[in-house]
What does this fold into?
Amino acid sequence: MNSAAPDRPPHWRSDLRHAFTSLVRLPPSPGPRLPIATQAALAIAVPIVVMTALGRTDLGLQAASGAFALLFGSHLPPVDRVGVIPVAAAGLVASAALGALAGLSAPATLIGGVLVAVVSAALAFGFSLGPPGPLFFVLVFGLSAHLAAAGVDRVASVAAIAAGTVFAWLLSALPLLRVDARRTPRRPLRELLPGPRWSPDARLLLARVAVVAVVGTLAALWVDPDRAYWIVTAAIGVIGVAADRGTALLRGVHRTAGTVVGAGLFLVLGALPWDDPWAGFRVALVLGALQFAIELVVVRNYALALAFITPLVLLLTGAATGDMHSPGIALERIVDTLVGAALGAVTGVLHPRRIIG
It folds into this structure.
């Protein structure tokens, strides 16, 4: 029988070819992204600007992490989105608090990272939270633990992140000032987040997250325990919320390519002067621009989005800890992403093959 017959699934090489050719594609957006991109940019930039003006750029940078709450429910109308974002915000604040508690102990940070990954994945998949899934809960845990280990005030840091999520929620509610937005029937939260219900796909996704959380953490013991959260988040980013092998391979290729480009962009941005009194305002401008670009392209080309996500997270972490000029960090993140992306893609074999377009 001809192996290329239409009733036979494509060979893995077809999936790989599709993954690489998709790097240079920019398909149309499935919906308007400008409002979401604008809200996300304001959510990350405004706290930094305000707190810089008050002489506490550090708290503004920590509050900026709360902007990740705004990335949930972006496919929903505003009247429903304002109900989902507080749920995501509560998870982010809880992750930050756990990271702050675990950050002073390396073993606690490693174990806590695995637990946060598994529990957040179980809840995200069990209640159909949707994109970006458990990714940012693990990332915020890692960032919070990193800040705690660097000696940052843990209570103030968690409080700042919580304030950032509140500001993000307020931004998501702004469209409701329009009469037409308020006319949309509001669905109950139990309909927006049904569950707990773990379908076969959800159970496989959860199993993949558990595998990458454990194996990625063990790999970090060999690479560098302090970087475990980045390896695990890279792997979870590859897993996403789609349950098929082809998508796992595609996202692995995109994750790696985007991070390499993003690390180079971080090196360029890190070479700029960040030590004068106006640096906080410039950080706000750069991070806001990166977040705006991310939200415009993330549904169109994941690699391009990662080219902006990588420097955003590195600059956010570096500015909060006072390390904005380290080329070694960029190389470390490339290595971590290669490990995590490969791990996430490999776990895709747990899924049955499906034809990807």
Summary: The chain has 15 helices and no strands.
